Inverse folding.
């Protein structure tokens, strides 16, 4: 974690949280909400005034009407909501989206329809969930050799049953 992130994280009722500045970009925008007190993900809503149809095996970009100012050293991970993913076959097209802390544009979720049937998103419907995560930056050092391990170059399925 970066020093900035550590300074902005607070403890409240045995839970960590960070104040996040959010800007509504239109009247249809709704602030993220949690489904329960201990939910890690905050639901993102479709900021639209009309029903959006998604053809089978196609992708539609749906705006949330929100932009965020995240703490330095963090990113917002955009995940599928289990309900619409398992019951209706709708998920973010990239499976997990990453919104960097220096991005100030609208959060848009590309929703993919994995089914053979037309699916619809209602105005104000929950379309994805957002989790704030810290990250560790990397500095790459090019070398001629890497240290050896027991696994070494064993790839897919080499460490377990498959």
């Amino acid at each position: 974690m970066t020093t900035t992130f550590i300074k902005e994280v607070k403890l409240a009722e045995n839970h960590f949280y960070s104040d996040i500045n959010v800007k509504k970009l239109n009247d249809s925008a709704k602030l993220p909400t949690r489904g329960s007190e201990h939910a890690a993900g905050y639901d993102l809503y479709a900021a639209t005034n009309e029903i959006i149809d998604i053809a089978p095996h196609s992708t539609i970009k749906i705006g949330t009407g929100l932009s965020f100012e995240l703490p330095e050293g963090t990113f917002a991970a955009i995940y599928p909501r289990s309900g619409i993913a398992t019951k209706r076959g709708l998920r973010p097209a990239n499976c997990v989206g990453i919104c960097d802390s220096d991005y100030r544009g609208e959060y848009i979720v590309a929703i993919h329809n994995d089914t053979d049937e037309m699916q619809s998103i209602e105005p104000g419907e929950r379309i994805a969930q957002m989790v704030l995560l810290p990250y560790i930056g990397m500095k790459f050092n090019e070398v001629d050799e890497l240290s050896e391990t027991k696994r070494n170059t064993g790839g897919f399925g080499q460490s377990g049953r498959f």
About this structure: The CA atoms of residues 145 and 152 lie 12 Å apart. The first strand starts at residue 9 and ends at 12. The chain has one domain: 20-134. The two ends are 35 Å apart (CA to CA).
